[in-house]
Amino acid sequence: QVQLVESGGGSVQAGGSMRLSCAGSGSIIGSNCMAWFRQAPGKEREGVAVISRAGSTTYADSVKGRFSISKDNGENTLYLQMNTLKPEDTGMYYCAAALPHFCYLAASYFGWWGQGTQVTVSS
After folding, report:
1. Is there a contact between 116 and 21 (Cβ–Cβ < 8 Å)?
2. Measured distance CA(113)–CA(122) in Å, rounded
């Protein structure tokens, strides 16, 4: 059974940093396309960053230069390093997995999801 478990969320002041982790079962992290999505209250889920099986990355314009997605295939863990956080980064952050040949930053491609971890950025 596929499992994705996020951790590392919490509260931080604007300008601060936070690192999210997503532990995957088996070899899901290394074998598939992996991504981070977020959802703020009253808003639709949006893609934040995606990393292909080969390690290529793509970011949403809103986080370029501030966030960095990475993975450790041996540890079956996905990361999201978030720097210079802004109040508009507040939301529930989810990691997700998609088949490796459908690696686009769109939620419809992702069939496996974690339960999410809350990130709150105060001004």
Report:
1. no
2. 27
